[in-house]
Amino acid sequence: MTKTVHLRHHRVMQLSRTLAWLVDAASDCPGADRLLAELGAHLVADGVPLAAGALTLEVPHPLIAKRTWLWRAENGRVIEALGFAPGGLAPDPANDAGRRWLRDIARGEVHEEVVGRQDGPQLGWIGPRPFTADEIEQLRQAARFAATPLVVLAARATLRATLDAYLGKRSAERVLAAPLRRDLGETIQAALLYADLRNFTMLSETSPPADVIAALDAWFDRIAGAVHAFGGEVLKFIGDGVLAIFPVVEASPRRACDAALRAASAAEAGMAYLNGERRSHGLPPLAFGAALHLGEILWGNIGAANRLDFTAIGRAVNLASRLEGLCKPLGRTVLVSGALAAETDTPLVALGPHPLRGIASPCEVFALPET
Predict the structure, then answer these.
(1) Angstrom distances, CA of residue 13 to CA of 7, 20, 81, 132, 138
(2) Cys bridge to 287: 65, 79, 160, 198, which one at CB 3.0-4.6 A?
(3) How many CA atoms lie within 13 A of 311 on its CB side?
(4) What gap in Å lies between CA 69 and CA 79, rounded to an integer?
């Protein structure tokens, strides 16, 4: 009897160190993946037999409904599974990827314990044998102490996901890393893409609002999808227009310029497919113009003292906007400035110098070859 009491007391003392870690240090974990891995390691060190674990959080995101991190005790590795929201890329109505994964890796009989509220963060654990009543209590106690650091992590994830959705990944990182002051920004070199939907005013006047929104969303999916696919970032949706950047991160701007050109070509292909679909439904095609330019921009905060916007301004942005205005009179979908054309080996069609409204010097203009 004395030996049994001693062992239980020893187990409680070991677990108390896990609880102390949850109280003192878990909130400093950089992400949910590290929290899960370290919590699992602490529990194993305390003698809880674990084969794997899963942590599921709901997140605010246009496409993702839930994020699940999956940990394996044998190697300490963590992977992530996503549950997509209705209307997302790959809907998963069950949103139970973590539970399925836990069962898949268990050898022999599955011994599972899930702790946490159904409408909040959930921790799931798999053991190589059935958990004892004491071990289940240890897991539940750890889950209770994990509630506060999980709230902190969920708040961070909510903030980051919201900023990513509205600002873009790079801009969100800058906003999070800098004070909220309008005198902060940096000058960077970037390939710029400025695109605009044609005849949008007519579309707005002649179509129901729901059809206009659907057309805008389809257009933005094509142009923003192409930008993101080639490493760029959408800075602004401006009415029916888009301003995107491909920052220069190497000594030469060639990679950024080539990426911008590939994104413009991909957007053309995407819009051609979309217009085929629209024609098949008796809808008019959507035309657009896009301009590519290479230059320096001021990337940072601008606005009123208590209402800031994170954006890009500068002569390069002005030139890209004015150059896009030449697409319609020149009968071209994509125009390229001489500055960007000089930094790529992509075959382009020279259209000669053209004056741009508000720009002091004429701009050498190029176009993508007709396809």
Answers:
(1) 10, 11, 34, 18, 12
(2) 198
(3) 13
(4) 6
Using alpha carbons, list the distances in angstroms from residue 227 to 196, 236, 284, 339: 14, 12, 25, 20
Higher pLDDT, 8 or 218: 218
The residue that leads in pLDDT, 133 or 341, is 341
User: pLDDT grade, residue 155 (50/70/90)?
Assistant: confident
Dist CA 349 CA 329 (whole Å): 16
8 pLDDT higher than 60 = no
Residue type, 61: H
Interatomic CA distance for residues 149 and 160, integer angstroms: 16
Mean pLDDT of 258-273: 96
DSSP, residue by residue, 274-294: HHHHHHHTTPPP--EEEEEEE
Q: Can you list the domains of the chain with their CATH numbers? A: 2-167 (3.30.450), 179-367 (3.30.70.1230)
Cα(274)–Cα(285) distance, integer angstroms: 8
Closest Cα partner for 289 from 334, 259, 340, 330? 334
3-state DSSP helix/strand/coil % of the chain, to nearest 5? 45, 25, 30
